[in-house]
């Protein structure tokens, strides 16, 4: 079956980062109550979004069925059907026993015959939607960085920013994209606006397959890592204009690269 990762609405859950307590985790936009539309499709979309953007990473376990159904406010039957669909699609695996549960086993896009999706083809398929997504991202993420810098961040929020920055320097091509997305989501969560954080998650997901398909170039990674560091440093220093400017520069560079794929 075809799995569609649709847009998600506003809201957030503080317990969205696996392995941490509810009070310690940033308010990433995941496990929000399902509202309107087809509950099964929306539940599948929420699970895919959490997996693809690294909110639940490969090797990590989903929350217990009853807990997850309560958070999403869907029936356990609907949740089981969504999990079964994602097992069939290769994202999840169910294990039995005391340490069992439902685990993420893959977050990668389906590769072509050469092992990697063709970035140019994906860009051309998106067409005008790519331009729209890139413009929307530029506005959203620069605003999120500025808001985060304007806030008086807690020690926990600052710790999450530093931790996500460190993880984003990962050079493993299988995990780099997820770690990069997670940093952007932690920055958005630090803005203090759940609606903004949800919108950033949506636009990141829109661009996910295309960004994952870009060939890994060490010089580009070095430049991206340096920009990420400058953004987080500006946020921690309370420099809103600096955080906004560097995030704009960062988004501009990515947009230039992705738009070049259209030609």
Description:
By secondary structure, this protein is mostly helical. It contains 10 helices and 2 strands, in the order αααββααααααα. It has a two-stranded antiparallel sheet with strand order 1-2. A hairpin with a 5-residue loop joins strand 1 and strand 2 (101-104).
Distance between the termini: 32 Å
Write the H/E string, N to C.
HHHEEHHHHHHH
Alpha-beta content class: mainly alpha
Record field, number of beta strands: 2
The averaged pLDDT comes out at 81
Instruction: Please summarize the sheet with the most strands.
Output: 2 strands, antiparallel
Radius of gyration: 18 Å
Residues in helices, as a percent range: 55-70%
* Anisotropy-based shape: globular
Strand content range: under 5%
Low-pLDDT stretches: 1-25, 109-114
Sequence of strands across the biggest β-sheet: 1-2
- How many H/I helical runs? 10
List the main descriptive attributes of the protein structure presented here.
263 residues; two-stranded antiparallel ribbon; mainly alpha; single chain; 3% strand
Summarize the topology.
Elements: H1 39-52, H2 65-72, H3 76-88, E1 92-95, E2 101-104, H4 119-126, H5 128-150, H6 155-168, H7 176-190, H8 194-213, H9 218-236, H10 240-260
Antiparallel strand pairs: 1-2
Helix pairs in contact: 1-3, 4-8, 5-7, 5-8, 5-9, 5-10, 6-7, 6-9, 7-8, 9-10
